[in-house]
Amino acid sequence: MATYVLVHGAGHGGWCYRKVTRLLEAEGHTVYAPTLAGLGDRSHLVSPDVDLDTHITDVANLLFYEDLSDVVLVGHSYGGTVIKGAADRVGDRVGKLVFLDAPEGRSQVEAFPALLKERENGRVVDGVELVFFPSEDLVRFFGVTDPEDIAWMLPRLTPHPWKSLEQPLVLNNRPALEAIPQYRIVSATSLALGIHNEDLMAKARAEGRFWEIDSGHDLMISAPEAVAGLLTEIASA
């Protein structure tokens, strides 16, 4: 059986993996779905200090304090940058990296420049610049259309600290990081938008580590069976 750590994207929390977690646990796997500082059930901890390094530390500390090894570390969207940073710090605990509809760049803004427009809709609250304020338009932006899913998501989404999205990722152990097998699962919607790095996609395809799911961006919510099935396949590869 495998051990998974599922890291969410901007504005979300560990709650967004509920469907996938239940499917994986039903197969006997161990699953952790932490919530990053300042978001979801930890939204009360948001502060001007919360940045990308904070979130990387959240995940790296989980791997250490739970004494996890050979982990399948999964990052959705912004979470892809977080897991890359965590694997750079504690790579000896990571067996495989899975980028779940997670475009890559030195920062999330570089990976997905359209975020700069989202910043225009943000605001400063208690000294913290926040973006992705919950709304039905935001849910549709995440590619979720089922009314039940929308009703479930809306009260759980939380604004995201902008600082973490624009901070560049600093890697200190790149050779060890690149030695970890990397897998890419993308949504058909994001692939059509051309936001994913073509060279990385081509490399993943050539290695048999690339899958496309016919879904919107939040595919762990809109296509949980497909995501759980691929994660199981990846763990056994």
Kindly describe this structure.
The chain has 237 residues and is of the alpha/beta class. Helices cover 43% and strands 17% of the residues. It is built from 13 helices and 9 strands. It has helices at 18-26, 52-65, 78-90, 108-111, 115-120, 136-141, 147-153, 162-166, 174-178, 188-193, 198-206, 219-222, 224-236, and strands spanning 3-7, 30-32, 71-76, 94-100, 123-125, 128-131, 160-161, 182-187, 210-213. The strands form 2 sheets. A 6-stranded parallel β-sheet has the order 2-1-3-4-8-9, sandwiched between helices. A 3-stranded antiparallel β-sheet has the order 5-6-7. The protein is globular and about 45 Å long. The two termini are 12 Å apart. The relative contact order is 0.17.
SSE pattern:
EHEHEHEHHEEHHEHHEHHEHH
Let me know the largest β-sheet: 6 strands, parallel
- In terms of DSSP E residues, the strand content is 15-25%
Rg is 16 Å
Strand order of the biggest β-sheet:
2-1-3-4-8-9
Count of DSSP helices? 13
How many β-strands, per DSSP? 9
Through-space gap between termini: 12 Å
Summarize the amount of helix as a percent range: 40-55%
Q: What would you call the structural class? A: alpha/beta
**Low-pLDDT ranges:** none
Q: Would you tell me the overall average pLDDT?
A: 95
Shape: globular
Pfam families: Abhydrolase_6 (PF12697)
Protein name: Esterase
Organism: Streptomyces hygroscopicus
Domain AB hydrolase-1: 5-228
